Amino acid sequence: MGTMAQMAVDEGARSRPRATRQKRAVATLLDETGEFTSAQELFARLRAAGERIGLATVYSQLRSLAAAGEVDSVRGDSGETLYRRCGSPVHHHHLVCRRCGRTVELAAPELEALARRLGEEQGFSELHHVVEITGVCPECPGPG
Question: Global pTM?
Answer without folding.
Answer: 0.60
